[in-house]
């Protein structure tokens, strides 16, 4: 993502640095649902910010699976019509990433609403 040819592109990517407790907080939009994949957010873990921005060695690569209840709530709102059609076609068990264990290690704990916004949390062991 740090290639100069991508300077004017927006892939909803970002870099955050963990605090003293190893926690990262960020704000994003709710991802849409597309055919064959359960709604999720990708992340990578690097040893340092300089390693991340230099595309250095990755310590971990994973995804946060979003809850069914949150997806159903969000996809019932305007702007998510395509996601409302795609979402029922995939389950955590049929997803090609989460299917092995139904996403139990990657499923976020979520609270909130489509109207007020959601908070998602996931403990990741490195």
Automatic annotation (TrEMBL):
GO molecular function: iron ion binding; oxidoreductase activity, acting on single donors with incorporation of molecular oxygen, incorporation of two atoms of oxygen
Tree of life domain: Bacteria
The UniProt record lists the keyword Oxidoreductase: yes
Keyword Metal-binding: no
Entries under InterPro entries matching the protein: Intradiol_dOase_core
Keyword annotations: Dioxygenase, Oxidoreductase
Protein's recorded name: Protocatechuate dioxygenase
Species the sequence originates in: Pseudarthrobacter siccitolerans
């Amino acid at each position: 993502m740090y290639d100069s040819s991508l300077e004017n592109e927006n892939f909803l990517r970002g870099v955050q640095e963990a605090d003293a407790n190893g926690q990262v907080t960020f704000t994003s939009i709710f991802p849409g649902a597309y055919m064959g994949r359960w709604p999720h957010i990708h992340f990578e873990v690097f040893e340092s910010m300089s390693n991340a921005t230099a595309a250095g060695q990755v310590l971990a690569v994973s995804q946060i699976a979003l809850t069914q209840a949150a997806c159903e709530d969000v996809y019932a709102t305007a702007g998510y019509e395509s996601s409302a059609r795609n979402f029922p076609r995939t389950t955590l068990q049929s997803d090609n990433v989460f299917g092995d264990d139904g996403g139990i290690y990657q499923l976020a704990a979520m609270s909130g609403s489509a109207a007020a916004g959601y908070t998602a949390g996931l403990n990741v062991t490195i």
